[in-house]
Amino acid sequence: MLGLVLPAVAEPQFGLPLNCPSDSICPIQQFVDVDAGSDARDPWCGTQTYDGHKGTDFRVLSMQEVKTGVEVVAMADGVVKARRDGMADRLVSSAEDREAISSRECGNGLVLDHGNGLETQYCHLRQGSLKPASGAKVAKGQVLGLVGASGMAAFPHVHVTLRRNGKVIDPFTGLGIGDACSAEAAGSAAGGWLDAEAASVLGEPGLPTVLAAGFFDGPVDDGQLVRTGVPAPPDRSAQALVGYIWVINLRKGDRVSLRIERDGEIFARQTTEPLDRSKAVYVAYAGKKGAPAPGRYRLEAGVVRQGETILVRNAELQFR
């Protein structure tokens, strides 16, 4: 008697969890922490994670993008297993903030069941933006809601966790918590669960990403930038001229250099001291007080690692 042979069920290929606007960037700020102990290691043995982080964080620049609306989408076909909405979008910056969302760190979000023990969880969505109801079927790429800052969110982003039979899996490499990271595989998504488009956003893990670089009329910091967004350049009425760089995922020992020229002559320059620890986000600036004189100003901002400049961004501004 011949047995019934069932066709193999293809494993899903997961897509990106958000539709990034064409005029912006949506970089990955943190990956899964694959270290099972008290240390923190991303899948490539780097520092782009923190202890106990169980997902991948795709960020938007600031709360201005949250107001505009950036769509969070299903990474694969599935069914809504659970959902929560109604929590305010509020950047966490203090112990009181953390206490206020205790046990609800995911904020507004949902879980999709993809079958075969696979599920994805989406966290920190914008209040009131969740679309599908519990039990609804959704298709890959279907809009689930909007990026927000609900729950334990120090910056606006969607946190996505991929699980199989309850075990957290890094979607880029397929590694789980407790698996050995691989520095040799840096820049590779081999063994992962993502489709070609999603895997292509990986770039080279370990390299920092510039969120913005430009000019302003005074000192800037991450708190200001993440709340109000990239500032407009100053005009001739400004009482100072500052060049800045806003960057994520710096390593211990990295330095940030800034050089501003006016008509080819040095206007201001600064190189920071080596960082005493890795930094998830960092802002550096240099400049001078006083109304800017007419001329063409050029900013060159870079990240220096072990004596080598690994990243450079330029900006120009002209006053007549």
TrEMBL record:
SUPFAM superfamilies (alphabetical): Duplicated hybrid motif
Protein name: Peptidoglycan DD-metalloendopeptidase family protein
Domain M23ase beta-sheet core intervals: 53-171
Stretch forming the signal peptide: none
Top-level taxon of origin: Bacteria
Protein's organism: Hoeflea alexandrii
Pfam families tied to this protein: Peptidase_M23
Entry-linked InterPro entries: Cell_wall_metabolism_enzyme (IPR050570), Dup_hybrid_motif (IPR011055), M23ase_b-sheet_dom (IPR016047)
